[in-house]
Amino acid sequence: MAFTIRPARPEDTPALFDVRTSVRENHQGVEELAALGITPASISAMIAAVPCAWVAVAYDRVVGFTMIDMDQGTLFAAFVRPECEGQGIGRALIARAETALFLRHASIWLETGRDSRAAAVYRHLGWGDETDLGGGNIRLTKARPA
């Protein structure tokens, strides 16, 4: 599948929610996300304020996205539509997020489920130094390449 990665724009927000609510693992609906303060308004505002998100586009459709918190040095979202998995989209999105984070941080981090498919992907991409956060969750870190 051919795809491109580009910076997210506020008008991409509905597509980000479409991708986010389509996933099988770590699925959360719009109501669950809103209870966490993740709303279309909050995401649009984040994207408008600072470069913090990228989308993968295939066939003129957003099929994945990633988001970072530059101040905290964290990758906090990386999602790909289920029917588009296994095409290198997640790897490309994560690489773009890492590049941005390493501009300001020597070490970056993320949190995920210990036994999740996502954790396996992150480990495969060089994330490690696992810290148990309890409740089946872990923190992984990655150092800036020398």
UniProtKB/TrEMBL annotation:
Gene3D superfamilies: 3.40.630.30
InterPro entries membership: Acyl_CoA_acyltransferase, Bact_Acetyltransf, GNAT_dom
Molecular-function GO term, any one: acyltransferase activity, transferring groups other than amino-acyl groups
Keyword Transferase included in the entry's annotation: yes
PANTHER family for this protein: AMINOALKYLPHOSPHONATE N-ACETYLTRANSFERASE-RELATED, AMINOALKYLPHOSPHONATE N-ACETYLTRANSFERASE-RELATED-RELATED
Species of provenance: Paracoccus lichenicola
Name this polypeptide is given: GNAT family N-acetyltransferase
Keywords of the record: Acyltransferase, Transferase
N-acetyltransferase domain ranges (all copies): 3-145
Claim: Nucleus is one of the keywords in the record: no
Pfam family for this entry, one: Acetyltransf_7
